[in-house]
Amino acid sequence: MSQSRALGRSTAATSATKVRGRGGLLPVLLVAPAVVLLALFTIAPAVYAIFLSFRRMKVGRGLLGGGKPTGVFAGFTNYAATLTDSEFWASLARMLLIAAFGVPMTVILAVVFALCLDAKRARLVGFARLAIFLPYAVPGVVASLLWGFMYLPATSPIGGDVVDYFGNRGIFFSVANVVVWGVVGFNMVILYTAVRSLPKELFEAAELDGASELQIALRVKLPMITPAVAMVALFSVIGALQLFNEPTTLKPLANAISSTWVPLMRVYTDAFVNNSIYEGAATSFILITMTVAATVLVNVASRRITRRQSR
Amino acid sequence: MKTPKSVAAVGVLVAVTLAVAGCSGTDDKPAASTSSSAAEKVTLTYVNWDGGMDKVVDEWNKLNPNIQVKLSKPSGTGYTLYNKLITNNKAGTNPDVTEVEYQALPALIANQVVVPIDGYVQDLASKYDKNALSQVKFEGKTYGVPQNVCPMVFFYRKDVFDKLGVKPPKTWDEYAAAAAAIHKADPKKFIGNFTAADPGWFAGLAQQAGANWWKADGDTWTVNINDAASKKVADYWDGLINKGLVSPQPNWSAQWNTDMNNGTIVGWVGAQWGPNQLPSIAKDTAGKWAAIPLPAWTAGDTTVGIWGGETEAVTANSKHPAEAAKFVEWMNSSEAGMSSLISNVQVFPASSQGQQLPVLKTPPPFMSTQPDYNTLMATVSKGVRTFDIWGPNANVTFDSYSNAFGAALQKKTALSGALDTMQEATVSDMKKLGFQVAG
Q1: Do A57 and B395 count as a contact with CB atoms less than 8 A apart?
Q2: Does B77 touch chain A (CB under 8 A)?
Q3: Which terminus has fewer CB within 10 Å in chain A: N or C?
């Protein structure tokens, strides 16, 4: 209410009763643009995608179809096709493998950086913070291209002719590396902000009790920023499910990456290479379900941890 | 793995509904629906990725003040473009004219993206041989004027071959021997590479070996991707790869470009259009390459496959199909159009009359040391052998090629197994779409 009064252009005198009178309306108006945009560009396409996922294309009779191809009801066949395809599960496994390496790395490195930057003896904090954050500002596609050049033997300054960065196993590290490099800075900033907002008295008290800098970082600061760490972990898990840019950009450079290497690449290939929007829609719906499930899981887990700690 | 967006998984599909048109859409002028409205000024949009095409379009615009063509480059080549056309078709935002490689035309016809132009162009049968026409004619309707013929040839670094005393290969046996000789002289050098990035490349080699991936009988398709001829080609390259005589680097990658430029790779099984692409791949080696006919399976055999080759097609979204067809016809079958294509885009025309044009006496700039470059193309194009017809879902076949061959190269399993994967993927997709497939 106070907000609407502050924003209301009407004179203050008329305010009190009048504002209360139209109480429900102004907030609605204020959030309306966001809701409309969300409905138009997120919810409506999602609903349409679900509709599409239950259809398939059928060409007419004749060698090349003869007549317009029609969409027909397909039941659950698109879902069945994805769920029974071993390549889909393989792509999920690849994604999880990258996540298993990437998610802990992004979180652990971000925690380490944040705590280091907050340390009393840290120098050049401003520069270091910017240097760690900067890769986040580089678009994923550009970062992948840059790393691609660094991995390839012909152009590599980091020993591409000795290490096969695009080998069967190396490729997972190579992709995860690009991802970690790009995300750590963002996570670090969130955690650093969390650390900075902690009350200074606590550290002083700990110091008086004879705690070392390291002990303060690990025993005092870290437990207190656990909620922020949990949130960062959640972001990283969701990000892992959306892995697409990096492998797609690296694909033309390496035989090891197929067009269905991770689930989102499969969605893209179905929809825009094999021209089957229907299967792409079904697969993306399956993925959304998984993303929501993963989000809930991480949320519940992190809440448990926080609760245990606050006890 | 960037900022999370809760439903970004469907973000990809948002693009479908909104039909984000990468290629410029059709103009908004009132439709000149009748074909004889030449007096009215129309603007056609045309999408093409070839370097130098702007000059061809400029020439047309000068000659035809009433039918102006606006050229735009697609954001992606090959199937990236074709699938965008299929998607945009539903939204009605396709350009009037688009370039289409022969192998993609059936898919665009099946999706009703392009329209027949028989009513707008003069009789093509007198200007083109059956082979060329079969690339654009389906079920009695013509969907474009054949632009070029792209026989496969072998490019090699003449300076390196001469220095090492290796004779340019005439047969595939000689190619294998030359590969071994080059690798022995300098273990870092390769005679060429096997590419999992270019399905059209392998298809061309399979055509030479006698494969016929698709056949049409009435309304029924026969698919034969894993036939003996194709497997022979796969096994041959398998042997070279296993001995480490050819590089497994995909074409067009940064690695391949560098290797081609610095003399690590000294040969390229390519096609007629190579000199148009080579300047951006290996600019330091201009004038050092020579082209010869593709190695044969048996000495003296002149059969070669094609890699690429294209036509321009008029889209179903076009409001000016008559004018669009006129532009297509001018470009690909008039003397002025073909001459412009030859000198600016380095096309070798499909029309037999075009193959006699005087501009062909000058070689492409990159092949300046080979004055008879186009004479060679005329000779080898006589031995061209293609599939009966390209399948209606060659996009699926091609995508499967890249995945299956890429995986086989990576895991070092038999390449011929990848052909089975392609066959299976192609047939099951055709059946799913409702095409009749024999067997």
Answers
A1: no
A2: no
A3: C
Any B CB within 8 A of A184 CB: no
Q: Are B368 and B287 in contact (CB under 8 A)?
A: yes
Residues B181 and B97 in one domain: no
Contact flag B399-A274 (C-beta cutoff 8 Å): yes
Output the domain CATH number for residue B356: 3.40.190.10
- Are B110 and B240 members of one domain? no
> Above 0.85 for ipTM, yes or no?
no
B9/A267 Cβ within 8 A: yes
Please tell me the distance in Å from B352's CA to the nearest CA on chain A. 29
Tell me, yes or no, whether B371 lies in a domain. no
Residues B314 and B419 in one domain: no
Q: CB distance from A168 to chain B under 8 Å?
A: yes
Determine, for residues B5 and A242 on separate chains, whether the beta-carbon distance falls below 8 Å: yes
DSSP A219: I
A276 residue type, one letter: S
Q: What is the pTM of this model?
A: 0.86
Q: Dihedral sign, CA of B327, B331, B335, B339? A: positive
Q: Which of B83, B219, B402 shows the shortest C-beta gap to A61?
A: B219
- Domain with B413, as residue range(s), is 152-306+388-437
> What is residue B404's predicted lDDT score, i.e. its pLDDT?
96
- Tell me the pLDDT tens digit for each residue of A206-218: 999 999 989 999 9
Phi, psi (5° rounding) for residue B305?
Answer: -90, 175
- Least CB-CB distance to B83: which of A154, A167, A273? A273
Contact A259 B3 (CB under 8 A): no
The chain B residue lying nearest A283, using CA atoms, is: B9
Is some CB atom of chain A closer than 8 A to the CB atom of B413?
A: no
Query: Residue A269: CB partners within 8 Å, gap ≥ 6?
Result: A259, A260, A280, B399
Instruction: Provide the pLDDT confidence category of residue A21 given band limits of 50, 70 and 90.
Output: low
Report the mean per-residue pLDDT for chain A: 87
The reply to whether residue B111 touches residue A242, judged by beta carbons under 8 angstroms, is no
Out of A86-90, B86-90, B151-155, B181-185, which region has the weakest mean confidence (pLDDT)? B86-90
**Tokens linked to A295:** 């989000």
Q: Check pLDDT > 80 for residue B13.
A: no
Residue pLDDT, tens place only, B87-116 = 899 899 999 999 999 999 999 999 899 999
Average pLDDT, chain B: 89
Q: In this predicted model, what pLDDT tens digit does every residue of B279-291 receive, in sequence order? A: 999 999 999 999 9
Counted domains in chain B = 2
Distance from CA of A12 to the nearest CA of B (A): 41
For residues B273 and B254, what is the distance between their CA atoms, to the nearest angstrom?
20
* Pairwise CA distance, residues B110 & A69, whole Å: 8
CB proximity A194 to B under 8 Å? no
Asked if residue B117 belongs to a domain, the reply is yes
CA distance B22 to B84: 8
Rounded to 5°, angle at Cα A214 from A209 and A219: 65
